[in-house]
Each structure stands twice: as structure tokens, then as C-alpha cells.
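Q: How would the C-alpha cells look for this protein?
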Amino acid sequence: MVKKRKRRFFFCKSVMLNRWLFSAAATKFSTTFRPKYCMVCTFKTLSSQFQIRKKAGDEEKISHIGDEDSNEEQQVVDDIWKTLKEKPPGLAQETILIHIVSLNPSLALRVLVRISEDPRLAVRLFWWKLKESGSKLPTPSVYVNLLKILYKVELDRSMHCDTEGIIIDRTQSCHDVLESLINEESTSELLGLLIWIFTKQGLIEESVRVINRMISAGIMPSERSCYRVLNALRDSEQVERAWEIYDKMLKSGIELSVMTYNTMLDAFCKSGNLSEALSLVDDMQGRRVFPTVTTYNILIYGLCRMGNILEARKLFDEKLKRDLVPDVFSYNVIIYGYSKEGNMTEALKLRDEMGSQRLAPTAITYNTLIDGFCGKGDMEEADKLKLEMIDIGLCPDQFTYTSLISGYCRRHNVIVAEQLFREMVDRGLIPDCFTYTAFMDGMCKTGNMKEAFKLRDEMVARGLVPTVVTYNVLIDGLCKSGDVKGAYMLLSEMESSGLVPDKVTFTELIDAHRKTGNLQRARELFREMQERGLDPSCVTYSTLIHGQGKEGKMKVAFKLFYEMIENGIAPNVVTYNALIHGLCKEGDIKQAYSIFNEMQEKGVTPNKYTYISLIAANCKRGNLKKAKMLYKVMNEKCIQPNNYTHSALVKGFCNDGKSWERSGLPNGTLAKDTVNEDGIKEISTSS
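A: Here is the predicted structure in C-alpha cell form.
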């Protein structure tokens, strides 16, 4: 008892002495000498005295305000609060906060609760404690009290940042904080604050854990909290987990709004699961939640992305325009769908229709149209649209110039592409990775690999990091120029930089070995990409089929053909052309016609290279009547024959003793064709 009284006496004496010193210093000394030292001494003395009491076995809890000791401690807390609030001249709050961290946890919590009248100061106190070197991790109760303080006030943006930093700075205690909140029977709103912090910082696992724990504890999450988690899962392409949360929301009886349904629809559409998206629309209507313009925009965009423009237009006309009023985004989405399909006539009609609906086309509208015309190779129309958008007061942006540069590069017109690139820079627009990659692609297509690598170096010098697409463009250029060794060196560099080759990379290398006749290495690469979990594309299969057909290995070619169909990959015109060309080369023209008919039954339209192979094969066998018929069909379908077609026909008629003039066919230039000797278009290795 005597020892206890002595400790209390010395403690009180130290407190009184330091209070007096601080008061005297504040009044006596000039403005050049501020009482920082005295305040530091005060905090250090308080801390040491509390530690002595703790070691001596005094277990009184400071939160018991009715006790004699707690009254003294409460006075200390009040003094600290008063000092922090008044901010004495020359004594920065940071200095005070740094030295408060030496207080024991219970007193620190008392100070935190006391200064809850000023939440910003509470956050700063907590932040300094975390940042202080060597400071111990605060207990979960401290985190909980801080969240309670912040929830009670209207937080501004800077407070948001501070709060996030505090919680995220010690993520290892998130589980304990969550359990403390659950055990204290905290409100759904307070737990929602924790979810908001986690989702904003990208801590998806933590936010999902909070939702699941709330539901298991019988605490009903708000729809907005669940919506935030669904958004995070959608953005990270975790559709299955989003569906699990959605299902729990339904089972928990949470009333869903159109906002939640739109998020789920967007998740399904982005993952290509349109059937689930459409059934979800039926479900929401069954629950008396009515679709909005945004709902239909999401569905139309999903259909357009999947290439189902007919269903998209049906939804646009029969639902959106009938029940609601389409907005600018609605028109931009459907214009995108037609532009993607190459139907620029309909896309332009929709652009004109916007005016009648009193909707002004935006830069996105024009960029979509320009990109569509560039994709078709109609650069004149694309240039006109660029001038038109400038005339109506819209400024071409990075996307505008990138589309135009890419379009001209695809036409091998790198001179105009370079002019556009410089014009873009002169306008103050900074080329991004996509712009540089498009320009590099043009240089590679013209065989100017030196300039392509110069652009790569310039891009890196600007602080831009090459992507997988950038490396694929350069690898493709090296392969087409015959530098397969250089392509492998670049592949090694790509992997060293942490990038993983994709199916396009492998397809480019497979095509390079196909051209050199090294089909064994091509097959090895094909197996390697499958072992890496990369699914071969239609281009990959078409490349291998072309190689096998060229070598006369039609059994292997058809084996690959049926394999791609079994894997759900639809053959395109290049695939069918490779088979037809191989069969014609082997003299099996009957089977070639069978494939020719099959492709049309499957909805694949033959192109000029399809007809070239069949015309050449018929001429070689002396079937000039069939060759002439195929030639006329080409003209009727507005498929422009090339010089190789004319050469094959002339040779056939000459061998048959008939002149070209007597054949009844139009005159054509008989110069050597620009395509390869087999009359088959080179298979593109771009996806």
C-alpha cells in the first residue's frame, strides 16, 4: 500500500511539474524559443509512469472513468486533446503526434476517442502512429474505433485517402478487425465502410470475405456494398464468383435494383455468355425490375462484340426505341456493331439518324466510323470523316490518329502514316503504345525492319513499355523477312522482360517454318503451344493445313481440319482455300469441288483465291468450259480476277489450240501476278 501511494505521488508530481513547465515556457520565453522540449518531456514522463504502473500489476482499465486513477488519466487525455486542438505557436501537431505514439495502447485509445470531435486529427494521430518507426501494431479495437469515428462524419476526399491508407497499411490485421466488428454487432453501414475501402484499393478477397462473414453472422449487407463487390469481381473477370455473391443476395432477401442487374449483365456479356445475360433480363422483369437504357446498351454492345449484329439491331429497334429513348451511347454501340461487320452504309445511316433524334455525334462516333473505314481499306472516306469532325468542332484524338496510321500501314503506305504520326505530335497529342505498334506494323509490312526497331527504341525512350502485341508485330516482320533466327532472339528478349508469348506469337513462328518447309518444327511448336495451355486459333490451324496441303499430305491436313471443328473453331475462307488448293495440286478436283460446295453451305463466301485454284486446276486438266464458267461467276459476283487468273486461262486456251480472243473472255493484263506462285494468298498470322 505504501509503495502504491509513493508511485501515485511521484506520478502526480511529475504531471504537475511538467504542466507547470509547459505553462511557464509558453508565457515566459520569446517566440524564438518554443516549448517543444517541455511537451516532449511531458509525454515521455506520462508514458514511463504508465509503464511503471503496468509492470507493478495495476490492472485498472483506463476506460473506467469512475475510478480515482482513471480520473487522473482522463485529465491527462483532456490536456493532450486541448494542446492538440489549440496548436501552440511553434509546436507542430506532427511533433506532438510523434511523441504520443510512445503512450501505452489503452491511453492511446482514450486519446483517439477523446479527439473524435475532430476526425481529421484522429486520422492524423493514427497515421503517425503507424508510420512511426518501431511502433507496435495497434489492436483491432483501435481500428474499430477509428472506423466508428470516420463513419459518424461527412468525409471529404482527402479524408478518404487517409482512411484508406490507415486500413490498407496493415492488411495483416484485416481479419481481426472484421471479427471485432462482427463481435461488437456493428451495423451493416459500418461494415459497408470497410467494404468500400477494400474494393477501392482492389482488395477483392478481403471485400468478399466481409460480405460472406456478414451473411453468415446474420448481418444483412446493403445492396450498395454488394454492388461494389460485384463491380470489383466483374472488372477482374471473376464472373463465377460474382454469380455466387449474386445468388447469396437473392437467398438473403436483399432487394435488388437495376444497378445490380446491369453489373451482372455486363459481366456475362464481357465473358461472352449472352444466353445467361438474356435469361437474367427475363429474371429481372419477373421481379418487377424494369430495364433502363443502360441495360439495353449493355446487351446491344455484348451482341455486337460477338458479331451478332442482327440480334443487336432487333433489340435496338423493337425494345430500346419502342419502350425508351436511345441516348448517344446507344447509337455509338450499334454503329460500332455495323462498323465491325464492315457495313459502313448502315453505320452512316445511323449517324445521320442521330441528328433527327437531336443527338449530336461525339468524337467516339466519328472514331468508330473512321476505324470501320480504315478496316475496309477505304482511306479516302476515313480522311473525309476526320475533316468533317474538325469542321463541327470535334478534335481528333489518339484513337483517331492511331486508326488512320494503322489503316495506311495496312495499305503499305508508310509515307502518309509517318505524316499523320508527325501531325499528331505537332497537335500536342502524345503517341501511346498502340500508336507506335501500328506504325511499327507498317514498317514491318514494307520490310523496313531497321525503322521498325528505331520506333521501338523511341517508344521505350518515352517511357512506354512494349506489350506482347508490340513484340508480335516485330517477330512477324522478322519471320516474313526470312530472319527466323532474329525472331527467336526477340522471343527470348520478350520472355526475359516478363511477357508471356501468346497464340499469335506461336502462329507467326509456325508460319515461318511452314514457308521454309520445316513442317516438323512447325508441328513441334503447335504441340508446345497446346502444352502451355494456349488454344490454337483458326489462323493457326489454317497455317498448318496450308503447309501440309502444299507438301501433298492431305490426310494430315484433313485430320487437322476435323480437329479444329471438334474444338469448336469454325473454318474460314482461308482454311477452305488451303484444302481446295492442296486437293487441286494433287489432282483431286472432284474432292476440291466438294469442299467448294461445303464452304458455301456453311455460309463461307469464296473469294478470288478460291476461284484461282479451281480455274488453274481445270485449265491444267483441259476443262476449259468449267474454267470459263468459274471466271464468269467471278465477274457476276463482282470478284475481281487477277493476273494469275488470266495467265492460267490464256495458257489453257493456247494449249487447246484456241486463242484468247476466240474464247469470248475479256482482255486482261498478262503480267506476272503479284501473289505467290501457287495463287494462294499468304495466310495472315494476326488474330
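The mean pLDDT is 76.

DSSP finds 36 helices and no strands in the chain.

Upvote if useful.
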